[in-house]
Design goal:
mainly alpha; globular
Length: about 375
């Protein structure tokens, strides 16, 4: 019964994680990432200012950023959705550690410390807040290490720690003014959370595991595919965070009317530029943005080739043909969306769909890796 509840909650968390990823992309791409200047509240509210008198008070309290209701609701709703995902991750960790020595004490204690750190942060006690959050993360990771190899306890605890760190990245996204390395970290953290939840959901689903010894030879290819896809997602995030998606204009396959326009790779991949810079709209010049954009394009060719090979191998593996076709169709859709983003000038729906496609590719690869294993819980 407890395992069934774990599986149900895990699948609910998988669905919510996908929603959070896609909606987060929508928030970022619609330039609403800084629409709430404080965290975790929005202009000091649990929701967001709506009435005229609320907007007037918010503008007085936060003169650095005037209220834009049509953007503020997106950012704050995304935070609430992410908080809901955090609750589900906590529930999974509690269920998975119920039989471990001091399992609940560690999970609940660390979660309580995180809650206190948030309250302290809201009170502008930034240093002690950071220390407490770091201590909670260390406690969760130490417990996960101690519980490794014992069912879902370690993995569920790591997932909770990742979700907590995701909250910290969300905070830094606002306070560090869309710093690209933080934005990319937040994107990768969301994908990692989605992958971990998907893995746990499949591994605890009755009858989900495949007994196909001949397919086990695909695991190295699948692992390499997930690694390459992760790098490509990071490059895509770096492209978006540096506002380089249209650095080549609307040209494809050329860029600015040339096969190789002026580029500056040295400046393009400087990961840390200090704190206090407002990155909204980007700070790099055109050659630097062009270098980022071309890197994303060129690496896509490598990822495309590898994923097509994996897809063909799956199609010709008994029992896995449908997954091979699904992977191939997703890859084709991603390529089409990527090209369409350039040619049509980055329509919001298409750019958001491109992020969703990346998440679905992660899900397919994690599914195959998780199901081609022996069950253990």
């Amino acid at each position: 019964m407890e395992t069934r509840w774990f599986t149900r909650i895990a699948w609910l968390a998988v669905a919510l994680a996908l929603i959070v990823i896609v909606f987060g992309a929508f928030v970022r791409l619609s330039h609403a990432g800084l629409s709430c200047p404080d965290w975790p509240t929005c202009y000091g509210r649990a929701t967001w200012p709506v009435q005229s008198h609320e907007i007037d008070r918010a503008n007085q309290a936060f003169p650095q950023r005037a209220v834009e209701v049509d953007k503020a609701w997106r950012e704050q709703l995304h935070r609430h959705l992410a908080a809901g995902l955090g609750v589900l991750a906590l529930a999974l960790a509690l269920l998975a550690t119920r039989t471990r020595g001091f399992g609940w004490a560690v999970v609940l204690g660390a979660s309580a410390v995180v809650a206190v750190s948030i309250v302290l942060y809201m009170g502008r006690h930034y240093e002690i807040s950071a220390i407490l959050a770091g201590a909670a993360e260390a406690a969760l990771m130490a417990a996960a290490w101690r519980w490794r190899g014992s069912g879902m306890a370690a993995l569920a605890t790591v997932t909770l720690a990742v979700v907590v760190f995701q909250a910290m990245l969300g905070m830094w996204t606002v306070t560090w003014l869309l710093k690209p390395i933080v934005v990319v970290g937040h994107l990768l953290g969301g994908m990692a959370t989605f992958a971990l939840l998907g893995w746990m959901a499949w591994r605890t689903t009755a009858g989900a595991l495949w007994q196909r010894p001949q397919a086990m030879r695909l695991r190295p290819l699948l692992g390499a595919a997930l690694a390459l896809l992760s790098i490509q997602i990071a490059l895509g995030g770096w492209t978006s965070a540096n506002y380089a998606a249209l650095a080549c204009g609307v040209d494809f396959p050329t860029c600015l009317g040339r096969w190789w326009p002026a580029t500056d790779f040295g400046e393009a991949f400087v990961l840390w530029r200090g704190i206090g810079v407002d990155y909204e709209g980007g700070v790099l010049d055109l050659p630097s943005r062009t270098a980022i954009h071309l890197s994303h394009r060129l690496f896509a060719i490598l990822v495309l080739g590898h994923l097509l090979v994996v897809s063909l191998r799956l199609v010709h593996t008994p029992g896995l043909a449908r997954w091979g076709w699904a992977l191939g169709l997703l890859v084709g859709a991603q390529v089409a969306l990527g090209i369409g983003n350039v040619v049509y000038g980055l329509p919001l729906w298409m750019a958001t769909a491109h992020n969703a496609g990346a998440a679905l590719l992660v899900f397919v690869l994690v599914t195959l890796l998780a199901r081609l294993r022996t069950a253990s819980l």
